[in-house]
Design goal:
By secondary structure, the chain is mainly alpha-helical. The chain has 3 domains: 43-117, Endolytic murein transglycosylase (Dna Ligase, domain 1), CATH 3.30.1490.480; 119-198, no CATH class; 207-338, no CATH class. It is built from 13 helices and 6 strands. The strands form 3 sheets. The chain has a two-stranded antiparallel ribbon with strand order 1-2. Strands 3-4 form a two-stranded antiparallel ribbon. A two-stranded antiparallel sheet has the order 5-6. The protein is elongated.
Length: 344
Amino acid sequence: MSDKLMRGRVWPMLLLLLFLLAAGTATYFWNAYTRFSSTPLNVAAGGNSIDVSRGSSFRNIVADLRQQQLSTASPLYWRALAAQMRVGGKLHAGEYALEPGITPRQLLANMVAGKVLQRNFTIVDGWTFAELRQALAKTEKLQHDSTNLDDAALMQKIGAGGEAPEGRFLPETYAYVKGDGELDILRRAHAAMVKTLADLWAGRAKDLPLTTPYDALILASIVEKETGRADERAEIAGVFVRRLQDHMLLQTDPSVIYGMGAKYAGNIRKSDLTTDTPFNTYTRAGLPPTPIALPGRPALVAALHPADGDALYFVARGDGGHVFASSLEEHNRNVDCYQRKHCR
């Protein structure tokens, strides 16, 4: 066989081999790329997150994923995936949740859609404003931008300058993202209370001894601290409303305790009831000057829709509930029975 003929047969075979090799290599890499894009990242059972700083390049993001050992894939695969999804340069900064099972494709889709990780902060019914500030200071991924502000400066910052802060923030759960600050949550909670109180005040019961929505807020805070039972709130509110109408002292221990501040050591003594403070409702008539806690919506509803009846007194039973009485004589018997354990 001549060399010319031999070369004529070898070249097609070489070209075929090169084609098969290229096709095999492409198939291998395509299969590997497909597995990469649909295989979950190495996320721990409890989940994780990745923080994309403003101005981060795609290379930085991939490097961070690899550094955290969330992905061991070559950056080439990540670049190919970004090109296929046409998301290069479109990824938003922020903190993104990495839940078990999330794939590279899902992660990039979240980043291009800006589906940043949302966290929740709950303001608990009955907290004082001081307790709210303490809880905010301990909350992770939240800018602590109110730390160096006193109460007056804080209220000024959220657009409520001149208001006493106690009671002004609605207990609810508020979502936030990394980068939000304490003032963001407080501003929203304050606005929520303003709206809720205005809506409820507009539909209040008739002939209440409350002249302003702020009076209702104060009364609701007392109801909030007196009971945690939903079935008793309106009844307890009714007691205080009737005492206000009859010009009786409210004589509510939670208000006295609030006025004692740091002096309160867990027990309220007879001397505490006779020591005058602006919040001592045993020595001063009417409502205290400000709320004594952050009332939730149920307490606000109870204050503005108190239960009918003739009860003017109540005493704790010791099981979370209360016994009500319409006369002082009956009340004293209840006190003897449920507090002094001298039941007759």
